[in-house]
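Q: A reviewer asked whether we had any structural model of the full assembly, not just the individual parts. We don't, so I'm hoping you can provide one. Inputs are below.
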Amino acid sequence: MTKIAVLGHGVVGSGTVELFLKNKDNINRKNGLDLELGYILDIRDFPGLPYSDKFTKDINDILNDPEVKVVAEVMGGLHPSFEFVKSCLEHGKSVTTSNKELVAAKGAELLKAAKEHDCNFMFEASTGGAIPIIRPLDRCLGGNEIYAIAGILNGTTNFILTKMISDNMAFDDALKMAQELGYAEKDPTADIEGHDACRKICILSSLAFGKHVYPEWVHTEGITKLTLEDSMYAENWGGAVKLIGSVKRFEDGTILPMVRPAFVCNGNQLSYVSDVFNGIMVYGDGFDRIMMYGRGAGKLPTASAVVGDIIDCARQDGTSVSMTWEECSDSSFIKDYTLDEVQMYIRTDGVSENEINALFGEVEYLDRAGRPDSEKAFITPKLRECDIIEKMNKYKNNVLGTIRVLDF
Amino acid sequence: MTKIAVLGHGVVGSGTVELFLKNKDNINRKNGLDLELGYILDIRDFPGLPYSDKFTKDINDILNDPEVKVVAEVMGGLHPSFEFVKSCLEHGKSVTTSNKELVAAKGAELLKAAKEHDCNFMFEASTGGAIPIIRPLDRCLGGNEIYAIAGILNGTTNFILTKMISDNMAFDDALKMAQELGYAEKDPTADIEGHDACRKICILSSLAFGKHVYPEWVHTEGITKLTLEDSMYAENWGGAVKLIGSVKRFEDGTILPMVRPAFVCNGNQLSYVSDVFNGIMVYGDGFDRIMMYGRGAGKLPTASAVVGDIIDCARQDGTSVSMTWEECSDSSFIKDYTLDEVQMYIRTDGVSENEINALFGEVEYLDRAGRPDSEKAFITPKLRECDIIEKMNKYKNNVLGTIRVLDF
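A: Here is a predicted structure for the entire assembly that you could use as a starting point for your response.
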């Protein structure tokens, strides 16, 4: 018998236990395993559950039981998650986690610990919820040079943006609806300011390019400044506004990870990813491009990825197959985003077409229902972002909004 | 040093060598491996290549070299591929293949051989080309009960259907264009009659449900009977005609694998998969639904999946992590498709609305530009297919076409 332990019995933790127990017999039969639920660690009491006898409040019960081979960390937060996970790895127990904050802050260190102790650290659930992305990126696409990744990595903001587009709702109303439906937290900052997407693009960047990318190195903009007018112009342009977490690699080896709203054209599969769904597009030399689509959050979708990792860890028992990436103390491999060339959507009030054309040359003007004559919205040619900012400086009080165009 | 061997130097074989050699240093560094190209087996001569010294015409060179740990079979066909692959596995060498015919016909037997000889048999490239689907289905989604899979599994037919929809081309013209562009073979039978998609849905069905599904058990219809009118009606209905390979599981444990053109509604992500791209949607209890999208064929996309498997086999050396599925001699677990309930698009000439309504009750009538008054196209209510056929029998000379509606 191989015992598994689950650290945390919140939304994802209880979902993990539920899915595992429901499908346990099938899982064991299909994989030639003999997995059993050993422990659930939580400081709270959960009397009356069919598995109430499995709860413990002491991590040492798990660390000191040699039958525990796989631990699922689904508590969230950095502490004591980090200490618990590291101890488990140091005891030779493989760990899977759904904790993006933990992987984004401590991934390199924990992967190293796993390697050193011949066990595995897996985190499929940390990015894209149920969507297979970590394992595909590491294994299926491992023969390629990755050029870029662009993803809709946060379901809450995608729900809000979908409502703005399809139901013409204003941002605040859409946010309120997301909160009422339970998609957004009471304090929605981490979602709408892009911090959640930022952690996820850090994980994907680290994995794809082999160096740990910390959240504080990533230029991050949320969706709070978006207006209904912006999404109307995006539709007129032939696309949709999406919150995109992306990273791309330059010839000189630097990379540019970034989170920001972007105009995504209808030719790009990401433009069709709506509601709370996530989609992640990966570009590389052999495969060209791949997109994975599915539920990026929620109790059972996240549990699906956790249980998948539990099975894989158990199948790999004794072989450390986790990837590693380098811990870096300086961020000099991260490109300054203002030096990258972009096309920019700019919405102005009180600037004439002559003035706009004098600045940018030929631009693409957009229209929307109810556009006042004084309002001009347009897409600039491809220029360095710092040059676009400089050009617009003269009219900076006239700029109502700017959004980058996703060009990959 | 670990040597790899490549069996076959055709399109996929040369792509595999090309991609591997291009990215070898990165692959070895990222994975802590020391892989080298050891042999390429081909009966033909390829003088003047930078790796011409690696060619051999004798499989025994590979079988008898203990440094060869991973073999990529990219020859295609059943013989001698099967004999070569089986010998490699019996010599404890892991094998990866892009050969869907081989996996669909011999998968259970080869997986068993891999298990018995502590090595691995992988076939990510056999289905969906570059698209990660085998490993995600087996590992990432392994904690779930799979309900159904529906995929656009053949790029050639999807290209033809896209041209019919977007450029209003007739089937024959679109096929000719596909041949001119090199997407379709001179003899396009395997693609347009659905045989290629059939092999792929056999592989996915076997993997998802644990019993080997043979191609001859799968009801397969191609796209040769489709007309431009059908695709116009599909558009009017709010969707597109796609060649769908699918399988679904019933409460009684039977499954229904099938290949046929289907009406796919615009709410389904598969309807947006166009050109030569493939998309595979998977449904299950924890994750709800997942779609993978990418290039389903071609030299480098297929090589991408082969090289990914080579790396994984090398990382797993000594651990057999391949899944297995049961070899079945009878097909009693396959449901009779005529007993399944479907909605059917039916196009008739010379049948009145009164007569149609008398047969089916309320139906949804569709329209198209240039529809003659005598032509009626409609979607039936959900009924057993055998009942629909029986109802239409009275008017069978008036039926111009029928297409099932994809309902998952």
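A: Points you may want to mention in the reply: Chain B touches chain A through 56 residues (CB under 8 Å). The CA atoms of residues 57 and 136 of chain B lie 35 Å apart.
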